[in-house]
Each structure stands twice: as C-alpha cells, then as structure tokens.
Design a protein that fits this description.
CATH topology of the largest domain: D-amino Acid Aminotransferase, Chain A, domain 2
Shape: globular
Number of helices: 7
Number of domains: 2
Radius of gyration: 20 Å
Order of helices and strands: EEHEEEHHEEEHEEEEHEEHEEEHE
Largest sheet: 8 strands, antiparallel
Strand content: 25-35%
C-alpha cells in the first residue's frame, strides 16, 4: 500500500477525500444486512428522498488513532453505535445493529489505513451517517434507509498546545427545546447554529453558548460541544434533560474526574454560576477538551485565570483522556477498541 499524499505536519481539521467508503441499505420494514466497501465518491439519491425533504437523518463523529503501542484503536465505538440507535428511534428510522455498526467502522478504517496520521500528528476522523434515502411525498418515514461511513485524516485540533477560547452567551437563539430532538445527533440540529456562530466569530468570539429555551438562564451547550465548570473543587456539567447531546467525551470526563477523586455534579447550571467558576471548558470528539478563557453575557465579561492559560484540572483531564486514547497510559476503563488487522 502506497503512502497517503499528505503532509502530516500541515494537516488541519478539514475534509480530505480518502480511498473507500461503506454503504448499506434496507427497507423500512426489513432487517439490516452487512453492506459493502466501495470506492469513495458521490452517491445517487432521489430528489424526493426523506432526508433531503424532511431532514430524516443522523450522523456520528468518531476517531481512529495510531497509538504508543503501535496499533490502531477506536475510542468507545459501541457508545456511538448505541447513540445512533437512540437517534434512529427518535427519527423513526430502523436502528443499525451494534455489530453491523462496529464492523462497518472497522472495515472503513482498515481499507483506508494509509490515511491514518502517525501518532501525535492527528487522527482518522470517522463519519457514520444514517438517513431516509427513499422517496416520500408527505411528512412520513421514508421507505428506504442508507447507512454510510466515510473517513478523513484530520490534524490535531490544537497545534502548538492547548489555546483558550472566548465565548459569547446568546440572548436570542436557542439550540433545542424540551420535547424536541436536541438529545439526539440529528442533522437538523446543526444548520440553525451556523448563523449565530458566524455572527459570534465576526465579533471576535470562538463560539456561542446556548441557554435553555424555557427560562433563558441555564447553560446547555457550547456550539456543538458539552460544557463543564469547576467551582470550589466541584466539577459541574448540565444534566441530560433531553435538550443537550449526551456526549461520549462528556461521559468519559465525568468518569475520569470521579476516578481522580473529584465530585462531579450533573444539574442545571445557571449562566451566572458558570461565570463565577474558577475554570471552564467544553468538550467533544474534535477537540477532546477546549479550555475557556472568557465568557461574555451582554456587557459583562468574566475571565478565567489569566484568560490564556488552561486551568489545572482542565489540563489534567485533557492529558488523562488523550493518554488513554493514545495508549500512553493504561486503559483501566476498557475504552480502547483495537481495529483488527491493524494491531
């Protein structure tokens, strides 16, 4: 296998076409069967497809890493499979069995192995998609469904060390409402955030913090990431009430912090409380952990520490999590999943 035409040192978090993708299809009332690996390329879809007309679609985000142990691993892939199943139930799509999901991810990583960056240079981002691909006129479940996976090499989110981000709390826009689809990774959850995010970036902020849609005072998510803050030695994160995504990185951080001896509280986190904390960070698959330097609400801005240096616990959790993912430290939680044939 030839080397991938990539300069690993200049790789960014962006899309690069790779060699192969995975596709499986099923009818709404039929069981899933394993799909096939095909050359990466454009797909053909009906203009009347349920996903195009009514947004009947989900996605996941995962990474495959080359590790210190000289093998390629995934991080808690069964959790992505289960989250996609919950999302499929919510959007009335046939859930993909966990065994088919994980096997498909493994195949896609194996077939695109030359695109996996060396350890420390990034990771292979894995994007599973499930959508209503069959034609349907009228708001109803599509007759056919497609499960796809493609991969792309991505560089480290932070080049040259972790950098603190400045955030703006949105007064006018909300990410999700109670009873909606905010708790699943539906494609329709993401486009509405593009305008508030672009406006925040134009004003000099990295991203928007969304508050709850009912009382407009509780922190929910940072763009598409989960939020944490440290106050008086206790780590707080918004509770899962159905309006925020149950992040796999979020769950891993909660388990890690408790394992380190910290008290972790999952409850509603008021914006004022978050702004009075000693440290704050957000987390997700892309960055793992992003330290927060400041938060602005209206005409008030609060800065954590000096606004440029990640907090002590933030750094400790980042190192602990990435050291497990890279197999530098022992995986006492059983989170690392070796990819067969790439061990």
């Amino acid at each position: 296998m030839s080397e991938a035409p990539v300069d690993w040192d200049s790789l960014t978090f962006s899309m690069t076409e790779t060699d192969f993708m995975y596709i499986a299809k099923t009818a709404i009332d039929a069981p899933w069967a394993p799909g096939e690996i095909l050359p990466y390329g454009n797909i053909s879809i009906s203009p009347a497809a349920g996903v195009i007309n009514y947004g009947q679609g989900l996605f996941e985000g995962m990474k495959a890493y080359r590790t210190n142990a000289g093998r390629v691993v995934l991080f808690r892939p069964e959790e992505n499979a289960r989250r996609m199943q919950r999302g499929a139930d919510r959007l009335k799509m046939p859930p993909v069995p966990e065994s088919i999901f994980i096997d498909a991810v493994e195949q896609c990583v194996q077939q695109n192995a030359r695109w996996i960056p060396p350890m420390g240079k990034g990771a292979l981002y894995v994007r599973p998609l499930l959508n209503g691909s069959g034609p349907i006129l009228g708001v109803a479940p599509a007759p056919e469904y497609t499960f796809m996976i493609y991969v792309t090499p991505v560089g480290p989110y932070f080049k040259g060390g972790m950098s603190c981000i400045n955030l703006l709390i949105s007064d006018h826009h909300h990410r999700a409402a109670p009873g909606g689809s905010g708790g699943v990774k539906a494609i329709g959850n993401y486009a509405p955030g593009m305008m508030p995010s672009k406006n925040a970036k134009a004003a000099g902020y990295a991203e928007v913090i969304y508050l709850d849609a009912e009382e407009h005072k509780y922190v929910e998510e940072v763009g598409a990431a989960n939020f944490f803050c440290l106050k008086d030695g206790v780590l707080y994160t918004p509770e899962l009430t159905g309006t925020i995504l149950p992040g796999i990185t979020r769950d891993s951080i909660i388990q890690l912090a408790r394992h380190m001896g910290y008290e972790v509280v999952e409850e509603k986190v008021e914006a004022g409380f978050a702004m009075s904390a000693e440290e704050a960070f957000c987390c997700g698959t892309a960055a793992v952990i992003s330290p927060i330097g400041s938060i602005t609400l209206g005409d008030k801005t609060v800065t954590y520490s000096d606004g440029a240096t990640p907090g002590e616990l933030t750094l400790k959790l980042y190192n602990a999590l990435t050291n497990i993912q890279n197999e530098v430290d022992e995986d006492t939680f059983g989170w690392v999943h070796p990819v067969p044939g790439l061990e």
